[in-house]
Amino acid sequence: MSKLKYALYTGCTARESTPELLKSTLAVAKALDIELVLLDEASCCGASHLQDFDDQLSLVLNARNIIYAEKLGLTMVTICNTCQLNTAMTKERLDHNPELKQQINAKLAEVGLEYQGTSEVKHFLYALVDDLGVEAIASKVTKPLSDFQIAAFYGCHNIRPSELHGHSNGGENPYAPNSIDKLILALGGKNVEYESKNKCCGFHVELQAPKTANRLSGTAMLDAIDNGAEMMVTPCPLCHLRMDTQQAHISQEMGRDVKMPVLHLPQMVGLALGIDPKELGLEHHVSDVTFA
Question: What tens-digit pLDDT sequence spans the chain (292 residues)?
């Protein structure tokens, strides 16, 4: 098997608000002999907010980001569910609408760029599970997570709509996702089954309706806790921000103590691979992760 190589689209959050995500992603890629080329020229995906305000601008920005992966001849990998949604949505629309593609390329031509549609877009989770494979990852485990009951929290934007993501996420069932659960087992951990693993964390309504956001997060976290979870892992930095930094507000809203370590997906993988917790950026978390 040839060495895996991808163009890494970090998005905004993993560089600024959750730097531990980028740090742990690079550390895990190195440990698994995956080459990641950072797309430093890329910009924000619009975060599902620009899309509501200016559809054409959002398409131009996301097409521009994909172009930098096309220039490298590589598949683009994302490490944010919302980035994955907006980038994949742009690609789907442009690849299936020649007139729209022409309109967007007319704007891109102003800065000397042209979208071709030659690069695939997938989340790092599926690069690990589908391209590298859980067996290959399991063979690299040096510190099995056998002491931990781990709840996978998939969130929304990586698995829905399934007709958009299906070709890039191994056909993940949005009603019963299992990719992270398979990864947990491969790392020697015990996966927790609970109903809310594919629900919304509430991040995108946090400013407009914080009580609703806290209730959405709290419902999912308490569901996991009540089913025996000792930690939660998510592939999305926005879900992580909501559930890691807002536990005091979530507890207040739910009327119960909601305390649980919430890891980024690469951090969980990195711990099992024996990577030092400092190299994984665990000290950046707001909630307690001293268990690691």
Answer: 689 999 999 999 999 999 999 999 999 999 999 999 999 999 999 988 888 899 999 999 999 999 999 999 999 999 999 999 999 999 999 999 999 999 999 999 999 999 999 999 999 999 999 999 999 999 999 999 999 999 999 999 999 999 999 989 999 999 999 999 999 999 999 999 999 999 999 999 999 999 999 999 999 999 999 999 999 999 999 999 999 999 999 999 999 999 999 999 999 999 999 999 999 999 999 999 976 4
Q: Measured in Å, how far apart are the chain's first and last C-alpha atoms?
A: 33
* Helices vs. strands in the chain: H and E counts, helices first: 13, 8
95 CB burial (10 A radius; 0-12, 13-18, 19+): middle
Rounded Cα distance, 280 and 283, in Å? 8
Which tokens go with 188? 């020697």
CA distance linking residue 30 with residue 24, whole number of Å: 10
Distance of CA 53 to the CA centre of its chain: 24
3-class DSSP assignment, residue 264: strand
Instruction: Report whether 145 contacts 268 (CB < 8 A).
Output: yes
